[in-house]
Specification:
Radius of gyration: 15 Å
Distance between the termini: 42 Å
Strand order of the largest sheet: 1-2-3-4-5
Low-confidence stretches: 121-130
Largest sheet: 5 strands, antiparallel
Number of strands: 5
Mean pLDDT: 88
Number of domains: 1
Helix content: 25-40%
Number of helices: 2
């Protein structure tokens, strides 16, 4: 397991591992949400030496950003709706724990609950085939 709470400040190796691991997990999240190829991008901004920077999954309808910006609260994943990939402000901010990157199905469930994205791909047990 990756230690999401180990600070990236002034630690280039930790920051590199943080960004590499977060990018990988966000790509797995996109697959779990059944986001079509080309409907999203995963990008990384390492920012300055004193901060973690952020890794972002930006879909046409959801914006998910990972960083160490909420460490005192344990939250470090921002989830919000958006209207296209040029919308950087989007809907209301919702935060979940960085540790959810270690449980992609649970993180996908949180994204679905907050944004409605990917619900069509989820098969309800009471849904009957036609």
């Amino acid at each position: 397991m990756f230690d999401w709470t180990k600070s990236c400040s002034y630690d280039e190796q930790q920051k590199r591992r943080f960004h590499t691991t977060a990018r990988s997990r966000l790509k797995k999240l996109a697959a779990e949400l059944h986001l079509p190829a080309g409907s999203y991008e995963v990008r990384s901004n390492k920012a300055g030496i004193a901060v973690s920077g952020e890794v972002t999954l930006h879909h046409t309808a959801v914006y998910i950003q990972v960083g160490q910006f909420g460490m005192s609260s344990g939250h470090g994943i921002l989830i919000r709706t958006c209207k296209g990939r040029k919308d950087y402000t989007g809907g209301a901010n919702h935060f979940v724990a960085l540790a959810m990157l270690d449980d992609i199905p649970a993180l996908a469930a949180a994204v679905r609950a907050i944004t409605g994205i990917g619900r069509d791909a989820v098969h309800s047990p009471d849904r009957h085939a036609a």
